[in-house]
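User: quick one, fold this
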Amino acid sequence: MTKQNISAQLFFLYDSHCPWSFVVTQLVNEINKAFPNITLNLWHTAFFDGKIPLNKKEITNEIKEVEKLANISFSKNYKELANLNRNSILVANLMTWAQNKTPNLALSLLNSIQAAHFEQGEDLTTQSQLEKIINELKLSPPAKIFKNDKLSKDTLLQLEECYALQEIIQTEAIPALLLAVDEQLILLNHNFYLTQPSAIVEAVQLELNKYQ
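Assistant:
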């Protein structure tokens, strides 16, 4: 849908264990399907390290708000899991590796990971929990990334890029969905499209039309 002389990229700043990121991934799926020529950058922010103090009331309220605004229902397994400390370090390392080495499979990997977490209620903090997904996608990540207590060097480098981008858009909030067209950076307001993910396609097309 985009012209050849237009350079367009989509940046998705997220955390695999964040329920808001889960629903925004559906928007990314729609954009990727409609605009296969847009370069997709999935940047895991590694927000949850298993050490953030839990506030069960805040977690419950967050889940209810996501369910209401996105018109979905989270599984019982996930709701039980949500009361435990979230640790996305292992997944951050895996997703960063996939984004760098097999970008064509990174979105499929993210969808499978989020399904395992938010639908099946797996915390995804061990290699064995991810092996089925990895095997299904025929991935071969190195053993060194399978650590749930230490971010890989590549992940740390990507986080520096995340911080630089967040400084430009002046917010550290996740998830964040940004469209870059040539030298322009457009922050897409994902809240408008949570109940109808396909509607974001028109919004992206309108932005692209400005540069055609």
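User: anything notable?
Assistant: Helices lie at 19-34, 56-70, 76-81, 89-101, 103-119, 127-136, 153-169, 200-209.
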